[in-house]
Specification:
single chain, 847 residues, alpha+beta, eleven-stranded mixed beta sheet, ten-stranded antiparallel beta sheet, 19 helices, 34% helix, globular, coiled coil
Length: 847
């Protein structure tokens, strides 16, 4: 192609004459393109070198070479933008088609409801009045449920133990599934926050007035239909609650489809209910319009068919016709419809746990949306849109996430066929301890073949569950992730990390009150929508004493954090981690521990529990009643279930000591979470009265010392000209001061912690007086603030006060707080001895 560029024409006398064009020859363009491929933006020296090395470019000025590269970069940018716009346009066209189909479906549903409403009204007018409940709504609902529970009475007369009978079940399951995916068989209600768009997850809806629980999602993916089907059929790869899927029989169908008899085991989300399993028929086939469909339903006594394998450790759940419909999209990619419809036998679990098994929102997040997100993630990884650091392939990092979740689920469930057995309790039933003495069981993907150092060693798991009141799961997980020192014990971390060494059991067990360690979080990968992140946590080592210098080494954790978005409805929040060594090999052994918080349905209960309260779930299961005085003034009773599981290795001689340590450690974590819950539980409303002023003699004395020391060191009154000498008045003035005033311990052998704060200081740190004493100063100030305090510390001790420049600090929730100035002064007791340091943050605000 002949490339034309603006170029000065060379004249015999004056060199260059402006206003003319030069036509580049194909050879010149080829030479320039070769250079552009290697370096799109060459320097001036490189352009001059190009002219010298290529004789065919000798008649072109360096300035014109520069212009050519500028134009070439501009054309490349325009080409990429045009390709991007074409992709967006293709997505928008497909989404428009999807929305038009959804609109047609909704119109059909409206017409169907109008017809039913008129029919029921006519029945009501002509009825004899003998029916007890003759309301329109109850008749419609009961009719729908009866129709769904008994869709085809002729199943009982059908012989489904042969291929023809199984094909009949498959065809009926296909018809029912399609009516749910694209029809009006289920009354779908769109989930809040799931807005359609070219880059959105898709359209997500949940069932209403439906037998069982159901969820539906449809969206666009840039993969071909058969590739999507291959990914979704591999259920354990994307469904974290799936333990295993066994295909027991494969039967070719006469129409080119395939019938499979499948046995699926699911993990229980908590320690308080049995796991579920499914015995299903899965039917895969192509439709006349070129779509590929995979539908699945349970085989029961009502449907007929072979009997599934029995299992005493599981409760058999029922899968109503479900599956996924994959339609090819013009220009590439697919339109994906997913339907999940199950009955998890909620009546077999304790009443307090039933919302977990009766919530379509939780089903949507854990299954339906998870499947769609996984396919989108694979699609973007395949196209190269997702970039990961550290030289790791996306599949490797995804495997790490799966292994962490699987190991944590194994610990929570403690299946007998994995080798787990209960260990005797210490008299209290709040902590469950299980051991696994089968080294052969740990050859699985979540542990690695070289995990246990010697035969006869095992793994011990201490676990517990508790009920949280009005504590948002996302907020609690963020706190646990960002403030590890508030709940973790360095000695326990050291013992867990020692399992990766040659002689792990030479390291002593945890000691009470281990010195807190600093943590540095290094991100590895995030899913496309940032709902899950994989990271490495470096714990900076400290020694308890000179003889413990062997423990003073950095440790590393591989950590998976999910569910930190507070706007997700029905989302499960989880923080799972496992010690790793510095090599961080792809097949590194993992022994996961962590936390899982699952929200229960929010209900309005006038006599609900107190807003700032955590309950032992064991007491809730025993039917404990609440006091009338604990009623929530706003009538809000938001609950969630927290499950804790920690795993440790042991040898034959240390089993009892490790079990004792594990129980003590998990109990201390439960206590820490109860204190944290008091701090982070949101106040019911902005009209709630502030925290009452502490009126103890100690508080009055401390306020007097703070005020007197400030005046003594700075020569000014802390409260201005209105300063009063009365103890109660002085306390109220300090408590209601507009600036944040905090007191910090003054110790040289330990990290300073806050001991007192006024109302404004508590608001700034987003905490309470009870939880304040667990917050360390060095975790609140940022790096420049800590350096400024260290540089001014000698001046504070000698002169009595110092002013720190404007800076940024962090609240207990991890939110950044900016302040214009901070004044620090030494608080003296009556005998002039040092009592603490006082901080006053002026004009602070959340960033």
């Amino acid at each position: 192609m002949m490339m034309v560029h603006s170029m000065n024409r060379e004249s015999p006398d004056k060199g260059l004459d402006s206003g003319k064009y030069v036509r580049y020859t194909p050879e010149q363009v080829e030479a320039l393109e070769r250079v552009y491929t290697e370096c799109p933006k060459p320097s001036s020296l490189r352009r001059q070198q190009l002219i010298r090395e290529c004789p065919i470019l000798s008649n072109i000025e360096p300035k014109q070479i520069k212009v050519w590269f500028q134009n070439r970069r501009c054309r490349e940018k325009q080409r990429k933008e045009a390709a991007r716009l074409q992709t967006v346009n293709r997505k928008l066209n497909a989404m428009n088609k999807l929305l038009m189909e959804e609109n047609d479906r909704l119109q059909k549903q409206v017409s169907h409801l109008v017809y039913e409403n008129g029919h029921m009204k006519q029945q009501l007018h002509t009825s004899s009045g003998t029916t007890t409940d003759n309301s329109c709504e109850s008749v419609v609902v009961s009719g729908q449920q009866h129709q769904q529970q008994n869709p085809n009475p002729q199943h009982l007369q059908r012989d489904a133990n042969n291929p023809a009978g199984l094909l009949s079940i498959a065809e009926e399951a296909l018809a029912e599934f399609l009516s749910k995916a694209t029809g009006t068989a289920v009354d779908w209600v769109q989930m809040i926050g799931m807005k359609p768009g070219p880059d959105s997850i898709g359209i997500v809806a949940i069932s209403r007035n439906c037998s069982g629980i159901a969820a539906r999602a449809c969206g666009l993916v840039s993969l071909e239909p058969m590739k999507v089907a291959e990914i979704l059929k591999d259920r354990p790869s994307w469904l974290r609650d799936c333990r295993c899927v066994d295909t027991l029989s494969v039967i070719p169908a006469g129409n080119g489809g395939t019938i499979e008899l499948i046995y699926t085991q699911m993990y229980a989300p908590t320690t308080l209910a049995a796991a579920r399993d499914f015995w299903t028929l899965r039917y895969s086939t192509c439709l006349e319009d070129g779509s590929y469909v995979v539908c699945e339903r349970s085989l029961t006594s009502a449907t007929g068919g072979p009997t599934g394998p029995p299992s005493s450790s599981f409760v058999r759940a029922e899968m109503r016709p479900s599956g996924f419909l994959i339609r090819p999209c013009e220009g590439g990619g697919s339109i994906l419809h997913i339907v999940d419809h199950v009955d998890l036998d909620a009546w077999s679990v304790p009443e307090v746990m039933r919302p977990l098994y009766e919530s379509s929102k939780i089903l949507a997040q854990k299954m339906t949306v998870a499947a769609l997100r996984h396919v989108r993630q694979i699609a973007q990884e395949t196209s190269g849109e997702v970039q990961y650091g550290g030289g790791r392939q996306p599949a490797v990092l995804r495997t790490f996430s799966q292994r962490l979740c699987r190991g944590f689920n194994d610990a929570v469930n403690g299946f007998v066929d994995d080798g787990w057995s209960p260990m005797g309790s210490d008299g209290a039933e709040d902590i469950t301890v299980m051991i696994n003495l089968s080294p052969g069981k740990f050859g699985g993907s979540q542990y690695g073949n070289s995990f246990l150092p010697s035969f006869g060693s095992g793994v011990l798991c201490a676990k517990a569950s508790m009920l949280l009141q009005n504590v948002p799961p996302a907020v609690l997980v963020r706190f646990l992730r960002e403030h590890r020192s508030e709940w973790a014990d360095y000695g326990v971390d050291a013992y867990a990390a020692a399992s990766l060494r040659a002689s792990p059991f030479a390291v002593p067990c945890a000691r009470a009150g281990g010195f807190p360690s600093n943590q540095v979080i290094l991100p590895l990968a995030q899913t496309v929508e940032h709902e899950e992140s994989l990271e490495v946590v470096r714990l900076e080592g400290h020694a308890y004493s000179p003889e413990d210098m062997g423990l003073a080494r950095d440790m590393y954790l591989l950590q998976l954090c999910s569910g930190v978005d507070e706007n997700v409805v029905g989302g499960c929040a989880q923080l799972v981690f496992a010690p790793i060594d510095e090599s961080f090999a792809d097949d590194a052994p993992l022994l996961p521990s962590g936390f899982r918080i699952i929200p229960l349905e929010q209900k309005s209960t006038p006599n609900g529990a107190s807003a700032n309260r955590t309950l032992d779930l064991a007491s809730a299961l025993e039917g404990s009643t609440r006091q009338a005085g604990e009623a929530d003034p706003n009538g809000c009773n938001f609950r969630s279930v927290l499950t804790i599981a920690f795993q440790f290795t042991f040898d034959n001689h240390s089993r009892d000591s490790v079990a004792s340590m594990a129980r003590q450690y998990v109990r201390s974590i439960v206590g820490s979470i109860q204190r944290v819950a008091l701090a982070i539980a949101p106040r019911p409303g902005s009209n709630i009265s502030p925290i009452s002023v502490p009126t103890s003699p100690e508080a009055l004395t401390l306020v007097r010392w703070i005020s007197r020391s400030y005046s003594l060191h700075t020569g000014a009154d802390l409260f201005g000209s209105d300063c009063q000498t009365s103890g109660d008045t002085l306390l109220h003035q300090l408590w209601n001061h507009t600036d944040a005033i905090l007191c910090c311990s003054l110790k040289t052998n330990a990290s300073p912690v806050f001991t007192f704060a006024n109302q404004t200081g508590l608001d700034m740190l987003e905490t309470t007086l009870v939880a304040l004493q667990d917050i360390m100063l060095d975790k609140t100030l940022d790096e420049p603030g800590r350096k400024a305090l260290c540089s001014e510390f000698p001046k504070i001790m000698q002169q009595g006060y110092a002013h720190l420049p404007a800076g940024v600090c962090a609240s207990s929730m991890g939110r950044m707080v900016s302040y214009e100035q901070a004044t620090v002064w030494k608080v003296l007791e009556d005998d002039e001895s040092n009592h603490c340091l006082a901080f006053m943050f002026v004009n602070w605000s959340f960033v």
